[in-house]
Amino acid sequence: MNFSVLISVYYKEKPEYLKDAINSIFNQTLLPNEVILVEDGKLTDELYNTIKSLQEKYDGIKTICLKENQGLGPALNEGLKYCSYDIVARMDSDDICMPDRFKIQTDFLEKHPDIDIISGWIDEFTGYKENIISTRKTPETHNKIVKFGKSRNPINHPAAMFRKNVICSIGGYKAIPLLEDYDLWVRAILNGAHLYNIQQSLLWFRLSDNAFLRRGGIDYAKNEIAFQYNLHKIGYIGVINMYSNIFIRLIIRLLPNMIRKYIYVFKLRK
């Protein structure tokens, strides 16, 4: 099965993290046909040098350069235009794929042509990938994913693989910071797509204090209130579900960062 890998990188990324991410892609038991790397705005010289060295080391890395930083959703939409294959694997520029990830996912999609979006669990780590502090587990089957999605994001985006035609048919990603993937999965469900989660970890996900800091504050809370209202408006959740989600999220967003980190890592993970 031919497939593309889609990554976006921006100027704040650390070159060594990007190198780890790309190396993990080309150390797979099943290699991709191409890697589409979107440069979301002007990068640092260190990042440009890292990308150049990686292109010299590996065949098939294509860069798409955006003049200005547009954010993850718009950057991925632009990258999708250049993906040559209908199967697209997502990857973040600071995470690390487990060696069998692509083979496991493509084998499943080949055997299950009715599945449009697939992901799996992710092991969250700090410092080095062996230092796993939590695992984000998501439900397996479509109906359970739909139910889970009414309160929490049901698909781990950095480990996702999907059929490009399905994603493009619903308009791709929207510019909703930190919620662009959640919004995408809901719209896909409402448009008849079928989802599945492999019940094992497929990726090492890099955690930092800054990751939890981005998920707090008034502005993020406002975005999430608008997001929950839209989920109700489009018919995915009921009004009681909406108000319950807003209440819980407002508390979490306005808590001190260290407490929010504790809740994410030790209360929202299995």
UniProtKB/TrEMBL annotation:
The chain crosses the membrane at residues 234-252. It comes from the Bacteria. Residues 4-164 form the Glycosyltransferase 2-like domain. Keywords: Glycosyltransferase, Membrane, Transferase, Transmembrane, Transmembrane helix. One of its GO terms (molecular function) is transferase activity. The keyword Transcription regulation does not apply. Belongs to the glycosyltransferase 2 family. This is Glycosyl transferase. The lineage of its organism: Bacteria, Pseudomonadati, Bacteroidota, Bacteroidia, Bacteroidales.
